[in-house]
Amino acid sequence: MGYEFSEVRLLKQQLVELNKIAHQVQMKVAQRIAQLAIRKVKKLTPVDTGNLRNNWKYYVMSKGDTIYIHIYNQAEYASFVENGHRIVVAGQTVGWVEGRFMLKLTMNDMQKIAPNMWQREMEKEMRRIFGD
């Protein structure tokens, strides 16, 4: 039961390469998740003029080992459609409009999908580096 020192050296090189590309893979997966989330949230967004649907934006940023995906809508009434709002007539509350929860539902779906996407990409890179 022996091993060649060259095998250990090769393993070290492979691990160094995997470590170098891990962040790139994570950023690539984060971009895909953000794009998928934008498509889904737009499908769930109710349309009157199209302003709300067309204002969904995202950006991906990295701080240390953590990658953040920010999805936002700059339409001033977006939070009211998302979370619901009161109906006020002559200063009196006469009803409530339920929220549509487009973003909340999308984020719940993305949290289920993201780990599998990340795992698939990392496994693909590991197969490329270490061989089958």
TrEMBL record:
It comes from the Bacteria. This is HK97 gp10 family phage protein. The lineage of its organism: Bacteria, Bacillati, Bacillota, Bacilli, Bacillales.
